[in-house]
Amino acid sequence: MRLLKYFLSSMKNIFGCFPVTESVEKQYAMNAAATFVIAMACAQLAESAERPPNIIVILADDLGCGDLSLYNGWVKTPRIDRMAKEGMTFTDFHSNSSVCSPTRTAFLTGRYQQRFGIVDVIVGKNEPDVGIPAATPTVSRVFQQSGYATALFGKWHCGYEPRFNPLYLGFDEFVGFLHGGGGYHSPTFWRDGLQPISLQGYTTDIITDRSVDFIRRHQNSPFFLYIAHQAVHNPYQTRDDTPDLREPGWNQNAVNDVNRPRYKKIVEDLDQSVGSILDTLSELGLSQDTLVFFWSDNGDVRMGPTERRPYHGGKFSHFEGGHRVPAVAWWPGKIKAGTKSDALLAGFDLFPTLTDIAGISWDNPTNLDGINAKDHFLEQKPIAPRDLFFGYEPKLGTAMRRDHWKMIIKGDDLQLYNLKNDLKETINVATQNSEIVQQMRLAIENFKQTVLPGS
Ligand SMILES: [Ca+2]
Are residues 369 and 399 both part of a single domain? Predict the structure, then answer.
């Protein structure tokens, strides 16, 4: 029955297209080439005898490796530890930026965010023209067009105006917020799709409850669920706050000793949410049918003790602490339990990786920048050497990883670090490695010319 539902749903989506209003569909319909390629992919998927896996991507906000016990951090997070024990832990996985919007754009599109002109935080309604264009083939759209039920609960931050709404970018359902974030208690400015919605409760719980409900409703057919938490972004409000601490005006954004224990509680609540998702899958007998990927959209704000942070820098930084983030892949029976990966990977690799794992074979119609790491996830095969760029012009300049080399260029300032023996990026070795500098500098210049907006 489950497979039959899947087939019917798949065929409906191949010929049906978007779950949006007719006028919007006309206005923002995908281009014919992308539709054709995705339809071909769907047809190939529908021929597969094996039911494809559910995909759940859990994205934390501003969470650093130093915050999690999994990485010897200062907060005990046993549910994320469990994911790691039963799955694969990544130690060199990166968000594509050290701030929210660019990382999320790269994940959803599988491409460098610069191509969409999104290199910095999108500041709500003040930037009406910035967002992911509705015709863009996103990872959610590929799953949707392949017969998956799709949903996003939580933070979007990839365009504030209605035309950039997640409903136009491959999500059947969206309940959450379009901006960077707000209060955790009975949050305001949320949307149910395009409509404003008033909600009671604590943000982490609302997102978790909606996600669990979605899993229950779609337990009999494949689904793609994007859980984008507000946690652990400021303001540092906990579930147990007394009413006076839920009011605006209290100093809830500062990184200080007062907020540190509150931050810790927010991390623990996030961990509990991960546990709720895993428990729901177990209860419904879906653990063997579901890949869960947990990660963060950028590094931490450095609330934890310095000695427990493995990297230099944090959010808003081109040092590794800005973009080397926690990441765990979990799929019992498919991803080998207890494995560790030191492969150089990034958020935009999830698009080609997860779609291939789901059996959606296609011909890279959008020239994805991300690489397909399926064989690494499932068979621990090595990843071929690759270059990875972190452009944040003009604020931070551009950074680049090539193997263990890390280069950061901003204006005339050039830094080169050898991460093999200097993981905390303390010694600039540019003058001793002129050939490496020359090669990487050229690669950065080529990158900047390659990822121009609209390319
Ligand atoms: Ca963030």
Answer: no
Whether residues 274 and 421 share a domain: the answer is no
CATH number at residue 397: 3.30.1120.10
pLDDT tens digit string along 100-148?
999 999 999 999 999 999 999 999 778 899 999 998 999 999 999 999 9
Burial class (CB within 10 angstroms; exposed 0-12, middle 13-18, buried 19+) of 141: buried
Query: How far apart are the C-alpha atoms of 450 and 356, rounded to whole Å?
Result: 26
Q: Mean pLDDT of all residues in the chain?
A: 90
* Mean pLDDT of all residues in 206-216: 98
**157 among known catalytic residues:** yes
Residue range 144-163, pLDDT digits in tens: 999 999 999 999 999 999 99
Residue 1 has pLDDT above 50, yes or no: no
CA 100 to ligand 1 centroid distance, Å: 4
Please tell me whether residue 349 adopts helix, strand or coil conformation.
helix
Name the active-site residue from 42, 65, 94, 157.
Answer: 157
Count CB-CB contacts under 10 A for residue 113. Answer: 28
Residues 280 and 395 in one domain: no
Is 353 found in the same domain as 444? Answer: no
Ligand 1 centre and the CA of 296: distance in Å?
8
CA 132/CA 316 separation, integer angstroms: 22
Co-location of 339 and 435 in the same domain: no
Q: Strand 190-192: give its sheet, edge to edge.
A: 195-197, 190-192, 173-177, 149-155, 223-228, 54-60, 290-296, 327-330, 88-90, 339-341
* Same structural domain, 199 and 137: yes
